[in-house]
Amino acid sequence: MILHFGLGAFHRAHQAVHTQEAGDGWTICAVAPRSPDVVRALRDQDHRYTLLVRDGERVSATEVTSIRRTLHAPTEAEQVIRYVADPSVRVITLTITEKAYADTAPGSPIGLLAAGLSRRSAAGAGPVAVVSCDNLLANGARVREAVQHACGNVPEGVSFPATVVDRMVPATTPDDLATAERLTGRPDLAAVVAEPFSQWVLQDDFPGGRPSWERAGARFVADVEPYEQAKLRVLNGVHSALAYTGALTGHEYIADALDDPPLAHLAERLLAEDVLPTLTPPPGVDLPSYGEQVVTRMRNRALRHRCAQIAMDGSLKVPIRLLGTARDRLAAGAFPQWACLAVAAWLRHVTVSLDDAGHPVDVNDPRAEDLRRLAHAPERLLAEVVPDLADHPDFTTHLRNTLSDFAEHGVRASLTHA
């Protein structure tokens, strides 16, 4: 059995689907860390839900049944801990978002995981793999560190394989729910939407066994880092750049942003001139073709991927998705003009929070208030968000000048000039 923390749309469109398609009988107990809504919906539907795969005008519906039980962590914490300690659970996966790894309070996902692993170890319940499926650098090491911080040690028999996950899963809309009902003939309040593409790369370190995910297209490798860097910098980096510039120029969806020539130019140049030169090609991956594939996927209008959704938690995501690219280009003696523009767009998005027409943009960032307080003092703001780039005054100067251009001329006009 698999225990999963994080019952959001991504898990239901990715790991749950891979587990079903593996076809070897593994099932999932999924834990909702906060809201009970999806738990109620799945319980009311006997834990069956619909995956809609949208590609342009085409849409298909698949029933997913790999999730067999759900738990609501705030009200069923003891049951969650018991499942972590249950010897029948041999894989524990997580999609809890980047910020959750810093929260080790007793009722948090990491707190519950740590408590269950300690109880599991004391009972001699057998080995288990804990698998972070979040977009974090070295996510296996990150979840291991979080568990160690919460437990004081890492219980014996627990592995933390690193992974890379990739599938675009926009928020489900009322229209999507109507489509699911039309195609299946029944209401489905837990339906999810995804693109056709799905990738899962894993380090093969599962001491208690695992599903045959390779049957569902997963790839098991000794080192996931090249795949991780390619995905975080190519897909996530470009996604973030389009989310911030798109929101600031009045676009609601990523596909609309890519239809705007200066924003499309930013995405293309960011890829070609800043991102790809910093990467080592993973085995069997042609990076320029991968970059083209990523942009093509983002143009899939059927997904209606909102800029505001991609822009969430930028203070946690931008350092991983964009600043690493900037650092590596500077170290190579090149100037990362396009990454700098993208970082400036994030700073304007989170601190000014108005688009070119003066309309408010949706901001959901744990550091928004702190950064807004520093917005009147650019030097302090940049020292706060890019402290390790202080040795590159040309970068911070360009970043400061770009913010001034955005304020004076607007984001779209500044991108057009660039």
List keywords for this structure.
418 residues; alpha/beta; Rossmann fold; N-(1-d-carboxylethyl)-l-norvaline Dehydrogenase, domain 2; 2 domains; six-stranded parallel β-sheet; 12 strands; 13% strand; Mannitol_DH_C; oxidoreductase; EC 1.1.1.-; Mannitol_DH/Oxidoreductase
Ranges where pLDDT stays below 50 over 5 or more residues in a row are: none
Output the CATH class name of the largest domain.
Answer: Alpha Beta
Count of helices? 18
Distance between the termini: 53 Å
Q: What is the overall silhouette?
A: globular
Q: Which sequence of strands runs across the widest sheet?
A: 5-2-1-6-7-8
Could you tell me the strand content as a percent range?
A: 5-15%
Tell me about the largest β-sheet.
6 strands, parallel
User: What is the averaged pLDDT score?
Assistant: 95
Gyration radius, to the nearest Å? Answer: 22 Å
Helix fraction, binned, reads: 40-55%
Secondary structure: number of strands: 12
**The CATH topology of the largest domain is what?**
Rossmann fold
By secondary-structure content and strand pairing, the structural class works out as: alpha/beta
CATH structural architecture of the largest domain? 3-Layer(aba) Sandwich
Superfamily at the CATH H level of the largest domain? NAD(P)-binding Rossmann-like Domain
Number of domains: 2
Q: Give me the strand/helix succession.
A: EHHEHEEEHEHEHEEHEEEHHHHHHHHHHH
Pfam families: Mannitol_dh, Mannitol_dh_C
Domain Mannitol dehydrogenase C-terminal: 223-403
Organism: Nonomuraea salmonea
GO molecular function: oxidoreductase activity
